[in-house]
## 1
Amino acid sequence: MTESRPAGAGLVDERPEPGESVLEVRDLVKHYPVRSGLLRRSAAAVKAVDGVSLTLDRGRTLGLVGESGSGKSTLARVLVGVETPTSGQVLVDGEDVTGRSRAGRKQLRRDVQMVFQDPYTSLNPRMSVNEIVGEPFAIHGIDPAGGRRAAVGELLELVGLDPDHANRYPHQFSGGQRQRVGIARALALRPKILVCDEPVSALDVSVQGQVINLLEDLQEELGLSYLFVAHDLGVVRHIAHDVAVMYLGRIVEQGPEAEVYDAAQHPYTQALLSAVPVPDPSVRLVPAGGAVGASSSDGAVAGAGQPGVGGIVLEGDPPSPVDPPSGCPFHTRCWLAPTLPEARREAASADAVRGLRLIPQVCETDVPALVARGSADAGAAGAAAHVAACHFARELATPGTGA
Amino acid sequence: MSDAVTPAPTARRPGGAPSSPLADAWRRLRRRPDTIAAAVVLAFFGLMAAFPTLFTTTSPRTCPIREARTTPQGWGGEHPLGTDALGCDVLATLVHGIRPSLLLAVVVVSVSLLIGVTLGLLAGYHLGWVDYLVSRAVEVFLVIPLLLAALLVLSLFKGVDLGTGTFNVILLPAVVLILFGWMPYARYVRASTLEAKNLDYVTAARSLGASDLRIMVRHVLPNAIGTVTALLPTSVAGVISAEAVLSFLGIGVRPPATSWGIQIEQGSEWVLGGAPHILLAPLICLVATVLALVVLGDALRDALDPRLSA
């Protein structure tokens, strides 16, 4: 392949056409077999990503949030082709790339590139910046017009680094500068999509802002689409146009940023949002007195189940993705379910010694579909609809984003 | 870009003038006097191996028995380092024994390094059945005692005449020592490969579409080889002394050729018998060689690692 794609130059002509999807994921599943016993038979599977569908429009940013272990990094790795999906489809520009040959996947990798979380481990310490940023050209056999060195210089300039520093090694740069080197490497092949796996969570807050602004500038300049994986909801709110919330390998809520943040429908999203620190000392994060001290888990959950009073405190760890709960995957930790009238009604009628947590039966038996609920969304033409996977989403009161 | 930052002034040289990594490595190497001394020692022994007649005119094969165990007579005497138990000149034996010793050490260490690094890298990178085969092979070779295996090889090659060239002389011990010397390298490299291959920059290379070979050679190996380089100088010493043991069994360097290993082996009998110089002369040379290799190996590793640059 001797096609010349000068980096940085002439990129502006590909202005994004809004509404056109550049990346589409359909029912993506990634299971890791857990082998045990003498014969290494696969006994179970870690369901890291369990049926995820999402769409990324050209020139837009989709924020993907969730706690650790929710499968967001696995999803990112599948999208850049480091992992092969167990089933499902990944469509880049309408073309399915999961069933491709090796050569076809190589082409995919030119379109989808990744920015890594830790700038200290994502750059090979024994390679100079020139070699690191120039490696994509070497791998794909591309000889940019004006030579690789010049192309590397242009890329470094594009991300705000001095091209004269191309001979330096990663350890001679600060964390923010290293992350810029990583972004330059990802941009070398002129991708359409950048998958950013927590690109700023390893950086100082002051540097975070610079890198986020750089990413926004690059999006405007090059018409890039971002899949922005993060656990920092504040950062996601700043950069993302749309937000998807993941829990145990599934998307539980998805929609435009403003709607998800201001009118969260899923109890998990509401719990996440209530955990965001508010820079205002008058806002109390811990629920008042009695709820925490209550003896049974019932009491604590009930006490926390008043959004608006304080933070919603979820109990315990996420369940194991090897054996996720039946029905709604969130029902074991849901703060909302025990407070619902359905739960109380069932408790009164059926066997009263069923367990400590009384929740509506439907939460345990049926997997909630990811559908639009409530009233307002129906008419939102074109734009991504606000959807949530909760049986009782419509019954939620005003979400608990602080006071 | 409004937020373009000026790079931190981390580099010592102004302006970041282009300079090749090799030139940098040489500059750093030169600044260390111990490195220079080690290089001089190795060059001296190298010269001795290449041109033994520059250092002695006596043949190591003229051994008048009545002059046995002559004490060192100093420079200018007939036997500057004395004679050994059979009356052979120690200096002459030393000078003529260096070639097979060093050649054997270099051949054995480099070939077993090549085998060990290749197998270890493949096993650690691919895991699965490759790893299974390599790991079991390592274990099998580790449990067979060296001497037993040496006897086996000896019996296999008993009747074979290998000739008298320097390389032919060391062929048998080289085969035995390589056969039973590659395992540590394979294990070390496999362990560091397991560690290095999950780092983000390897994932980054893979997401760029790099081939397995490229990832192994460019990304994993340079960062996994460090532990092994520390092992090399001492392995050289180990090979030279192991050769002496093999000579004792008759599969080492065969007479009339000599080696440092044989000299040390023979000299050790007379340490308390009034002739310690027979042992000390080759031993000091061996220690000097190994120390020089250690120092040089250290310096080379530091010089090639950009993180340790001054």
## 2
Amino acid sequence: MENKTVPATSKYPDKPITLIVPFSVGGGTDLVARLLEKRALDYLGQPLVIVNKPGGAGTIGWNEVAGSSDGYTLGMTGVEIILQPLYGQTKYHYPTALDPIAQIAELSIVMVVQDTQPWKDLDELIRYATKHPGEIKFGHGGMGTTGHVAGEMLAKSADVRLEQVPFQGSAEATASLLGGHIQVLFTNPASVKEHVKNGTVRILAVASEHRLKDPVFANAPTFREQGFDVVCSSWHGIAAPKDLPVEVKDKLAKGFEAIINDPEFQKNIEALGFEFSYLGPKESQEKWITENQKLSKTVQETGILDKIKAQKK
Amino acid sequence: MDILNLLLQGISVSIIPVNLLSCTIGVLIGTLVGVLPGIDTVSAIALLLPFSYGMDSTAALIMFAGIYYGSKYGGSTTSILINVPGEAASVVTCLDGYPMGQKGRAGAALAISAIGSFIAGTIGLIGLTLLAPPLAQAALVFGPPEYFSLALVGLILLSRLTGTSALKSALMAVIGIMLSTIGLDSLSGISRFTFGIDELDRGFDLSILAMGLFGIGEILTAMTHAEAKPDIPSVKFRDLYPTKKEWQRSITPMFRGGIVGFLVGLLPGPAATISSFISYGLEKRCSKHPEEFGHGAIEGVAGPESANNSAISATMIPLLSLGLPFCGATAILLSGFMIHGITPGPSLITERPELFWGLIASMYIGNVLLLIINLPLIGVFVQLLKTPLNILMPLVAVVTLTGAYSINNSMFDLIWVIFFGILGFLLQRVGFEPSPLIIGLVLGPELERGLTQGLIICNGSIWALITRPITATILSIGAVAILYNFVTWFTKYDNTRKELDI
């Protein structure tokens, strides 16, 4: 797959740019990519072609991005580029094999319960969990995902035993919460927004530094406000392979900055339930480095790494 | 009636020329997606998403929904004509549809499957219109332990759908389950049986296996006797449509299939495929002449082809009223909604009634359009059979492989399609019918996930898991069925022995 031709920087881009989405059609990353595609021609001068390469928790797609060098293959990124290499050997070490172009949006994890549950706030739930260790089951969208990490962070920070139930994606986990099969769900705001609005689901805490801007979630306190050190969010961004010519990278960074800061794009991103949060290449790179340090500590301390390692044997 | 009023309003939205046009385009594309083997609904909609950016949101959604339900209409066409399923949901239609075609009743089979699709699609829509919110709530009662019991009983009852040897069928189902464990385990996040090959992490897509085992497999089988002219009796125009007797035999299976499909569609999983298998099993059990199954029993076409269509209508229920996509195709529909700024969920009906009812009304119209499109096409499709196999089959192979590539944009998948094609060809040769393998592949993961999640939910107690009211009921039904099978087997065995003694 390696393509060694370095693009002629003055004319770049002179053909459509492939944007690899390393997850399946219809997921959050795919949606963001398609919103970019909508405005690409206006700001990049060439259309984006979205190619979904799902599998391996994103690694199949990123391997392809990291292995290309023609400047016409970019990839959507997420917090998994940092998490996956922590969980085990990947073909490339993505945080160093890729160069960020931009961060687009953040998705904080929220903690919700069904409205029929007795716990009015996080404090009541924690008190219940202290008295009944292991009785509360929390669902999340898959082992090692941000929902799982946030749940384990809470259990550790509050020193209670919460039993985790992995699901295949947030839709199945949400269905299980609504059916009363699990008591708590850690998920992204977008997947429960309609149910919070409707009153069938109650939000207890947000795993971010600040409260969410979305009016539906604006009243929900953060974990920090309630005395628990749980901050965990996923994010969506764009990255290119390492070692592209500086001019090419600058052109891409400028083009995507313009798309992302287009008011209509922002509006659409927020309508999907994401927190709009643009970061340029430099800020993104800094974020990758700090997140890498923070998360590698977290997955060790919460015992997630041990669980995954134990199963890999 | 309130709902009737709302539906009428919906109809007034859906017959605006632009919406009607989108509906027509949608169902036409859907029909094409269904007829062409290997072209997958999800990739077709994904490919068309960018073209909808400039469209009005209602029109766009009407079009995408049209592709979705339209694709299940045409899926049976190639199953009946050349034994190659157009969609995974039409794998089971090959079993009796193709033998019907061989007897010169291809036209009748196609007509019955189109009419059954229409009737069941409409049954599903009526359910969707009247009962969407309460049904969506009711389906939530089913949690992981219930999925586990359904999958277990399903595997037991369905693995012996075809053929004469129970052992061979069970073996195929077990291999299907084994294949389903390959790849990244969605729960633990670890790779299993991948030998370090990254691409295997994705596991085997249902479509890839169906296209290989049945599509490429059948093409290879056909090519081994390509010299032989197809000895299909020439079909007169009058013979294109079902006889009165065929009609009478089909009408109950259509309604039964419609109801089965609808119920299955409310639960997570590839509902269209699962419901077609259940319906086939059900028809075989209900039939007065089960010995005809596998040799061109019209019920074996009418039931499954109806079931997969009403399943489609039912999968719209969790999507529209809870905002939860339970299968790949509704996930991409959800994307279509979101990109146009619409979030399905409990408040959709109250916040955007014109869109909700417009969409549902368009589905009624779309179903009528599909019937109008499909019935005259039957004559054209039957003519296709006159094409010599050595021209037709390579064309089918090209389409199938293109479609298989488009699912994950992966060359690796193509290798597997061909591998499973050769496997399917060899299996047929030695008398194994591969359709139980598909059942294993589909139900295996449900079984495993349901058990793992269910055990955590029930604090690790298997007793607590199997004594949940719904789980216990389902498992008892399964136990009774097994017992019944044993009893009939013993009496048969006993009778044979007595006969031999005398």
## 3
Amino acid sequence: MRYSALSIFLNGLRGNTGWTSAWHFPEPRPHYDVIIVGGGGHGLATAYYLAREHGITNVAVLEKGYVGSGNVGRNTTIIRSNYLLPGNNPFYELSLKLWEGLEKDLNYNAMVSQRGVINLSHNDSQYAAQMRRGNAMRLHGVDAELLDREQVRSMLPYLDFDNARFPVLGGLLQRRGGTVRHDAVAWGYARAADQRGVDVVQNCEVTGIRRENGRVVGVETTRGFIGCGKLALAAAGNSSRVAAMADLKLPIESHVLQAFVSEGLKPFIDCVVIFGAGHFYVSQSDKGGLVFGGDIDGYNSYAQRGNLATVEHVAEAGVALIPALSRVRVLRSWGGIMDMTMDGSPIIDRTPIDNLYLNAGWCYGGFKATPASGYCFAHLIARGEPHPTTREMRLDRFERGYAIDERGLGAQPNLH
Amino acid sequence: MSSYRLSAGGLIDRATSLSFTFDGRDYAGHDGDTLASALLANGRRLVGRSFKYHRPRGIVAAGSAEPNALVTIGRGGRTEPNTRATMQELYAGLEARSQNRWPSLDFDLGSLNGLFSPFLGAGFYYKTFMWPGALWEKLYEPLIRRAAGLGQATREADPDRYEKTWAHCDLLVVGSGPAGLTAALTAGRAGLRVILADEQFAFGGSLLSESARIDGMAAPDYAARCVEELRSLPSVRLLSRTTVIGWYDSNVFGAVERAQKHVAMPKGHRPLERFWRIAAKHALLATGAEERPLLFGGNDIPGVMLAGAMRSYLNRYGVAPGRRVAIATTNDSGYALARDLERAGVDLVAIIDSRTQPTISYHGRARVMSGARVTDARGGKSLSGLTVAVGGRSETLAVDALAMAGGFSPIIHLACHRGGKPVWAEEKHAFLAPQDLDGVTLAGSVTGAAGIAACLADGAAQARTVAAALGKKAAHIRADVEDDVVAAPQPPLFSLSGVKGKAFVDFQNDVHVADLGLAVREGFGHVELAKRYTTTGMATDQGKLSNANAISLLAQAHGVSPAEVGTTTFRPFYTPVSFGALTGAARGKHFQPVRKSPLHEWAAKNGAVFVEAGLWYRSSWFPRTGETGWRESVDREVLTVRAAAGLCDVSTLGKIEISGRDAATFLDRVYCNGFAKLPVGKARYGLMLREDGMIYDDGTTSRLSENRYFMTTTTAYAAGVMSHLEFCAQVLWPDLDVQMASVTDQWAQLAIAGPQSRAILQKIVDEELSEEAFGFLAAREVSLFGGRLNGLLFRISFSGELAYELAVPAGYGESVADALMAVGEAHGICAYGVEALNVLRIEKGFVTHSEINGTVTPADIGLGRMVSRTKTDFIGKAMLAREGLSDPVRLKLVGVMPLDPAASFQPGSHILREGEEATLENDQGYATSAGYSPHLKSTIGLALVVGGAERHGEQVMIWNNLRQQYTPGRICDPVFLSAAKGGQGA
Amino acid sequence: MASLISCPHCGIRPKEEYAIKGAALPRPAPDAPRSVWFDHVFLRDNPRGPYEEYWHHAGGCRRWLIVTRDTATHEVLACRDAGAEPAVTA
């Protein structure tokens, strides 16, 4: 069923009884050409692009919960491509371009809103780092503007310009960055993949990876064995555990990142603002809630919940940046599990095991990567070689000494 | 508008009159009122507009679950949107305004949305607004945003104070209703350290609204007697107006005390709100139960409210709910309200009981309609009548108030905050808390218990068990209850046949029954998907009133038990918490602590301009009269240092004393270069790597005696290096005899640089400082001022000039600096700051963390030869050998200068080959640092560039597209001024 | 994460006094094969369940500790001084 203003009008006249399910609820078949583990944004996008770009439709996405029950529905909805390193920058720009055409592609309004993303700087070295980053973006044709203090003030007059412990010096603005309604991304991809013949199997947890002669031949699941030609892992948050089913040890730790939403407010903050002197970033959803977050709690965790120390740090940073937030009430906090890698950058690669492909390690940048991640992972699975934008996102880059370390923090995942 | 206030009864003080305004109109209420009760008493029913359809909404609850009565209170920086009128204590001068309406609450144009409601069903926005794409940001989204949202937040800073505190206790009791009170009393009497927290301003919970009698007393009096005794117990702390908002690891609870939210003008010496972190050995949750609304058309019309809420307004606040009232009930609890209404003389028209055989015997005057249910309510801004389905026919009733008694859902939020899943209890028709929680017990109606007597007994019994587990014996508490209405749980009422209007599930978010049906049809039937697709349960009440009904509807749609549907996840916070409370005092200038160097005052009196450097304030430059800009000052400082002498505060550098028999071995392992053979009395520059082979930090370490070393680190990494060294010593090599102490704060450290530095220092240093006696890299303890003071003197240089660093005990720093300035005056000394320091080091090609940014190896900055080839082990050795770390494409340190000395460039500019297209593929590297060298009369910089030293002499483009600054330049040796006296890297 | 950690030297202290480094993995011998070093520096078992980690009592006694913690529940199961046992293999 095609969605449009007209379809809403016609269905509305008929009491909205004509709407059909956005997707099927298929029983898994005995064998698929490709099985994707993880029905989150990346897994569903991979399935969609396998079908659309490569004509591979004998595909199942196995999801242990419901579609989009992982990080795609737990993040702070920010999209941007303001990356520094050549190993990252073209990939995230590809992603942003895919975001820009997403709604027409999927016939689903995920509310891609290019409201702008501004990273603030508070000292000379941050300013210089943003100069470097912004110029790297411009080198790749990505939009970037470096604002000085007064330009930031005219854009965000409610920041603390008078009494700040760390005064705002400037900011790196990407106007094409913004926010997307996160759940709708999972739903849109699930519906579009389903329409192209992909089986999105919910409530189907992978419990084992079966190998014969060193090659992956299928997966054990809570709904029985399912055979496959290729197995693609896109189970962020649980990557290490799923990979361990194939005796694969990853350069990844799982960490909890909390996110927050305030009570609904009339328009207050127009763009995405990222504080540079504390861990805090904020945007406002179309529904009116301020959606914000900070740093990971810092300890390995598979529990999707954090603790008060981080909650308080985030609030402190928020008020330091925007004093008026003090009277705004925080409605809810939640936690997602991040695959934190050893250099803060992701992995899209084949593994040393035949037929096993890995999409993991998104740290806390996975949401914005969703379209390109699916696009490039599908490319890798279909063609057996990496998409040009993910050439450096190799699993063996650490062993060879080719880390993609945007922040220069080394093999300490909780610092990235 | 006439008054609905009863002439007697309730816990309000009719002798007081508190004037307040709502939407600019004057009203009055009493001490003991909430804003909600005062509005109702004044006959003000319409208090808000709903989120989507802008439907008129009234007060539906009497506590923190209120979804409708959200108002904005206060002015200026004290403006608070979305305040629940039901939780806001009334005070004289309270200013409240309705929200989400235009132009006025009574006439709201947004209500036109209701006409389009067939087209605005659940998730409609996912299906449209896609064409043309550009209109989303320009047109559709701004319209949606303006229409959405609730109140308007202030943009002004908050003038009030907040604070945070920790508390520890044996037993935290949450909720002071019947179970909470007896629990606290039992535990308190047994001598346990008890904290009793309640979100209301008065203790007693449901007892405050109860008409039953306990031990011969009115229920509120019984509560007051309990509280009085609790106050007398030394180990009990009572926290009213305190909402426990979350349960965290290690049995720590977060709680917010609204210390001064009930006064017009908060007293400045007290916090507005206080955030508590309560570490409890055990917690007893006596959080009660939430009543469920009933589903019928127009169940959101002002005048329809929960039965328990109506009972609160009647009994506690002395407010009649209307002139002609009906009660729709599924269970016996509705009859307690009936009894109270009739006692108060309110005209009760009918009791509409869904059961064909009510189990309670009722002797009142109202008509009891058995086997009946409301199908639709009528009225716009106020209820005018009902349609009731009874015995297969339909009947209308003219009423102006309706109570909904749909049964109860235990308030189990806190018990589920740590991941436990609620358990469906079929016999109670409710979800209960997960079982066997560690450190938490539940008591009272939160367990599904019904009736006051049962709750009183349960609280006491559970507290006795807790006390016993903590080694205390507690006595029994018994209480006799008269007129206790024990409402046995009944299945929820879910017949929707005959319903014509919209039956709302989530009031605030305007989710009605049809929306959930649509969600199920469209594949969003999972409880979490239904929530996200319809937004039910996502409003500011977080589904307190809506979730039970939503789950039942989903269960019905799927033909399964609610147990199979499950619940959405309960997450903190129980009720919303202000940023202010979570922030406490860490705001404004106090966001982070301030570190000041022991030479801060010296720098200040010499006119320093300070700059934030991490937590430190460092002196940036020292302007003099007549200088027109910072560059002029910095140029003078740089020239003076190279021509005469300068004094710079370098106290912020990390300083670590290292001692022990194996200190030399230890240093040999933590630095990549050799330290074992460093002679006593000498300093050496060292590079510390991470285990992945990248440079971690640099600095000098001096051997003061055989087994005693003095290490300096960079300012930024001082704490990190200290931790790292402790890790190495304690964990990696515990067999080494080595100890260390951070002495950063113990020493003031002064850099004295320039050709005159020796002569100046010699005036205060007792020892001979000649080249022979105190040569390059000498490092020794020295005597100062004729033996009056000892210090540490290092012949090290970060400027390439003859230079020293002198460390003196921190308290003497300012005096020593003063003395040096005094004796140096004749030699032309000046104070210089970090800006000049930066220029001086760039001129000599010395690196800082601008270059060693965590992605560079020693070889990358031209110091590959420093890496020991002979040591068997040092941190980083193994991984430094990875192939990628010697790949020729790596960026390496060079100098860079503009061809035209008048031109300039900034750090962060990229380097491109001359004439090549500006693409990412052609990127050759970037400028890490830049500054104006008054010696070379040109901007100079350091850069990390592919190929490094091979490219000295190459002409390049210094490319800064952000600033449209394209500077033709030349790559050169990073040492701009030829080395004379050595320094970093020497 | 537990809000409180019991330091073997200082007793029960708030988590904010401690800083976590990560997996408590013995450092390979200097001459261990490259693959062993690579595994040590870059790969992690990352289990769901009990896990040994290095924590630094930075705001207390400044000893490095090995905390055994359940990554699924955040429960601290044990805490001991890290210097009491060899942390370097071979």
